[in-house]
Amino acid sequence: MDLNQPIANVMTRNPICLEPDEHLKRVEEVFRSNRFRHIPVIEGGMLVGILSKTDFNCFKRGVEMTNPQRHQHITRTARVLDLMTAKPVTLPPGARVRDAMAIFSKSDFRAIPVVDGKQVIGIFTTKDLFRLLSRQGLKPGLESHII
Fold first, then answer.
1. What class, spelled out in words, does domain 7-138 have in CATH?
2. pLDDT of the residue at 45
3. How far is residue 2's CA from residue 16's CA, in Å, rounded to a whole number?
4. CA–CA distance from 15 to each of 102, 105, 112, 119 (Å)?
5. Helix H or strand E segment including 120
6. Which terminal residue of the chain, N or C, has fewer Cβ atoms less than 10 Å from its own Cβ?
7. Would you put residue 140 in left (φ > 0), alpha (ψ -120 to 50) or beta?
8. Predicted pLDDT of residue 53
9. Whole-model pTM?
């Protein structure tokens, strides 16, 4: 298994992106219609943040628990900007899989936007990493050689 290969080889290309001013109703639709858990946030074509399904669901549950009657109103009026993580950690397409693994092992997030300059060209997630490891047939004992 080549952990020195560029993440561009294994990343999810051209991810769906949202803009900071979009309403959370749109976020709900995107997450419901797709099988991913992270959405890069762009403004003027440049990355400005990332929104995770976990953060969105925690927000929704909090609103539902504290004020169920206002839930629909808040999901229609709150914006991506209100929930996104600004200035996320990024990697260039030439970064190695090993580099992304090191970042994942030292952080609480599970997705890294891949940018060329500030333009999003992909996203590398732990799901992409697991897919790579399963295709390569990770053998017992190899874990010590990963990072």
1. alpha beta
2. 92
3. 28
4. 23, 23, 12, 12
5. strand 119-125
6. C
7. beta
8. 96
9. 0.84
